[in-house]
């Protein structure tokens, strides 16, 4: 199987989007765009939707890229430019386990795929989002793809 040069990787939090995109980048030499690094500023403060969209438009003009992240509000923007979409579709228990494992590894520290000043934390709403992903988000993403 040959992958394209404009790759979108989506799936629930904890599905392995960042791990896969980093590995594909190592193999292919294609730059990874981590949407969390764009959307979040220090202390988990989000940028405006317009600024987020404009930054993506600029980055998606490049000839080759791997985009790691969901962000439904701008999903169509990435989807229309991509030649390959990888949907990581794992059981919610696996995703929650991976997120908890990641939190234990990085809690109170910075992860390389998020913006400077965004220290790893865990919130109940985040876990609820992952739990509800198969019912709330998955069908909409599959429909769009």
Automatic annotation (TrEMBL):
Key word Kinase present: yes
Any one GO molecular function term: kinase activity
Keywords: Kinase, Transferase
TM segment ranges: none
Presence of the UniProt keyword Kinase in the record: yes
Taxonomy, superkingdom: Bacteria
InterPro entries in the cross-refs: Cytidylate_Kinase-2, P-loop_NTPase
PANTHER family assigned: MODULATES DNA TOPOLOGY, YALI0E33011P
Protein's name in the database: Adenylate kinase family enzyme
Source organism: Faecalicatena orotica
Organism placement in taxonomy: Bacteria, Bacillati, Bacillota, Clostridia, Lachnospirales
């Amino acid at each position: 199987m040959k992958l394209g040069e404009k790759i979108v990787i989506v799936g629930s939090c904890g599905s392995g989007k960042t791990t896969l995109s980093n590995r594909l980048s190592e193999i292919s030499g294609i730059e990874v765009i981590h949407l969390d690094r764009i959307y979040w500023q220090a202390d988990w403060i989000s940028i405006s939707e317009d600024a987020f969209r404009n930054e993506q438009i600029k980055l998606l003009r490049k000839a080759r890229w791997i985009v790691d992240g969901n962000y439904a509000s701008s999903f169509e923007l990435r989807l229309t430019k991509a030649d390959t979409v990888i949907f990581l579709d794992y059981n919610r228990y696996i995703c929650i386990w991976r997120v908890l494992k990641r939190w234990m590894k990085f809690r109170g520290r910075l992860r390389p795929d998020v913006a400077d000043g965004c220290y790893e934390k865990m919130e109940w709403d985040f876990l609820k989002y992952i739990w509800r992903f198969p019912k709330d988000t998955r069908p909409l993403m599959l429909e769009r793809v």
